[in-house]
């Protein structure tokens, strides 16, 4: 028998000691769905109802979830209706300007107290019996408080259930877990990369949208796809041909992808890809074409000194964030894959614009974003077909006997002198996908946050940008 090649990958401490025993709890691992040495992965995780239910508790009940952006609730008493996993949540800004994430469930019998997507209101009245809550979640009024309840109702304990909220550069995150680490620690060194999109300008960003639609696919298929650059020349062949014919973009080949100096990195649960080049080209955004290139170049020239002051030279001039995911379900910027059962995902597509950008540039980016990754976007439609088929294959009891193969680049990643995280040797790799499913296992196997490892922050954050923008 040929001896198995040694595993060259230098795993982060949180991935290094894997086996049937859980090193953190000394117990047998309940979920061991991926073999990191071979990349073989159990298809059942894409369709099994019991696993899905456990994900809602162990992942969406614990992780920091991206739920909105400050620009969606700009003024006092504004609210925006969103979700944490499957749970409906009202994101409010109270009269003092504080943000709240409130479970949209009346504490009496459970009706939703908000029925619209957004608005401005100081209080929310349940339409069943009239219990009324302030926009900070506290219970203010109950019909028959004395006459029917004999003044025995404990108002203080019957406010809307509130999640813990923190922000990063205007993005709003929330968690139900009281023992969760702070958002800064949760994002960890991934923020070093995320800053290059979300934290570039002094004026911050504004969110438009979302466009919402349902996709017949498991939520994880679209998250793991964020690091899959391998599929682009094949799945998007026709879309890329349209782009090169009508927008003047160069054709993309497998060879280009395999030779690319771009990077593929996994940091603290979050998957990153980025363009590594100091050619002073504006970063690629949807909306770039031969006709609009001038707009992007002018904007790049005008804003580079500010971006350099905020992020330092290396990040401003060399790192251009590409496809990425924020664990568990933030994908490609401010877009959400909201689980709706094991075989269905509700997709929320926002367009995030730099607030002080010229209006003409904003218009071009907005149209380009919809044309590429909106509900009818060229690239989106190519992708959905893949995710749907990966999901469908996992529903067959026979097919499930044969595991998925995520072996590309096993053993070819490690620390990098310039870049934080675990950096793949090649841009085209399945390293991030393997690590995503290993992160998934860590959440699913832990009894509490004490059993979920976090990498310490090691990156040097040059420049003036902070968590607060
Ligand atoms: S269910 Fe809301 S007041 Fe009764
Ligand atoms: Fe794609």
From TrEMBL:
Cross-referenced SUPFAM superfamilies: Bet v1-like, ISP domain
GO molecular function, one term: dioxygenase activity
Keyword Iron-sulfur part of the UniProt annotation: yes
Keywords carried by this UniProt record: 2Fe-2S, Dioxygenase, Iron, Iron-sulfur, Metal-binding, NAD, Oxidoreductase
InterPro entries: ARHD_Rieske_2Fe_2S, Rieske_2Fe-2S, Rieske_2Fe-2S_sf, Ring_hydroxy_dOase_asu_C_dom, Rng_hydr_dOase-A
Residue ranges constituting the Rieske domain according to the UniProt record: 64-174
Pfam families linked to this entry: Rieske, Ring_hydroxyl_A
Family: Belongs to the bacterial ring-hydroxylating dioxygenase alpha subunit family.
Name this protein carries in UniProt: Rieske domain-containing protein
Organism (species): Rhodopila globiformis (Rhodopseudomonas globiformis)
């Amino acid at each position: 028998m040929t001896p198995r090649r040694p595993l060259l990958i230098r795993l982060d401490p949180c991935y290094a000691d894997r086996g049937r025993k859980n090193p953190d709890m000394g117990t047998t691992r309940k979920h061991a769905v991926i073999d990191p040495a071979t990349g073989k992965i159990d298809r059942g995780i894409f369709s099994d109802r019991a696993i899905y239910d456990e994900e809602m508790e162990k992942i969406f009940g614990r992780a920091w979830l991206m739920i909105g952006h400050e620009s969606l609730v700009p003024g006092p008493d504004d609210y925006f209706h969103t979700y944490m996993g499957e749970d409906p949540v009202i994101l409010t800004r109270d009269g003092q300007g504080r943000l709240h994430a409130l479970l949209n469930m009346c504490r009496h019998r459970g009706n939703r107290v908000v029925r619209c997507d957004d608005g401005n209101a100081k209080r929310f009245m349940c339409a069943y019996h009239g219990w009324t809550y302030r926009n900070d979640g506290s219970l203010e009024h109950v019909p028959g408080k004395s006459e029917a309840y004999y003044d025995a109702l404990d108002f203080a304990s019957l406010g809307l259930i509130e999640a813990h909220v923190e922000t990063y550069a205007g993005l709003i995150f929330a968690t139900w877990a009281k023992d969760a680490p702070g958002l800064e620690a949760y994002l960890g060194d991934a923020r070093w990369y995320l800053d290059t999109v979300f934290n570039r300008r002094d004026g911050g960003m504004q969110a438009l949208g979302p466009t919402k639609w349902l996709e017949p696919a498991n939520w994880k298929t679209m998250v793991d796809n964020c690091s899959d650059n391998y599929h682009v020349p094949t799945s998007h062949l026709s879309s890329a041909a349209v782009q090169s014919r009508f927008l003047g973009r160069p054709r993309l080949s497998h060879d280009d992808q395999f030779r690319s100096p771009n990077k593929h990195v996994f940091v603290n649960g979050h998957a990153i890809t980025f363009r590594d080049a100091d050619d002073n080209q504006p970063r690629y955004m949807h909306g770039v074409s031969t006709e609009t290139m001038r707009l992007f170049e002018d904007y790049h020239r005008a804003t580079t000194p500010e971006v350099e002051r905020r992020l330092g030279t290396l990040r401003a001039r060399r790192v251009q964030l590409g496809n990425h995911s924020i664990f568990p379900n933030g994908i490609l910027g401010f877009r959400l894959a909201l689980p709706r059962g094991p075989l269905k995902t509700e997709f929320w597509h926002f367009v995030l614009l730099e607030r002080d950008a010229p209006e003409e540039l904003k218009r071009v980016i907005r149209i380009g974003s919809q044309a590429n990754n909106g509900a009818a976007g060229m690239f989106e439609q190519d992708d959905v077909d893949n995710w749907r088929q990966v999901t469908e294959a996992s529903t067959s009891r026979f097919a499930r006997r044969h595991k998925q193969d995520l072996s590309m680049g096993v053993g070819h990643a490690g620390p990098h002198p310039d870049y934080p995280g675990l950096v793949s040797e090649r841009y085209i790799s399945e390293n991030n996908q393997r690590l995503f499913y290993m992160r998934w296992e860590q959440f699913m196997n832990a009894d509490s946050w004490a059993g979920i490892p976090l990498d310490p922050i090691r990156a040097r954050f040059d420049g003036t940008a902070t968590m607060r923008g």
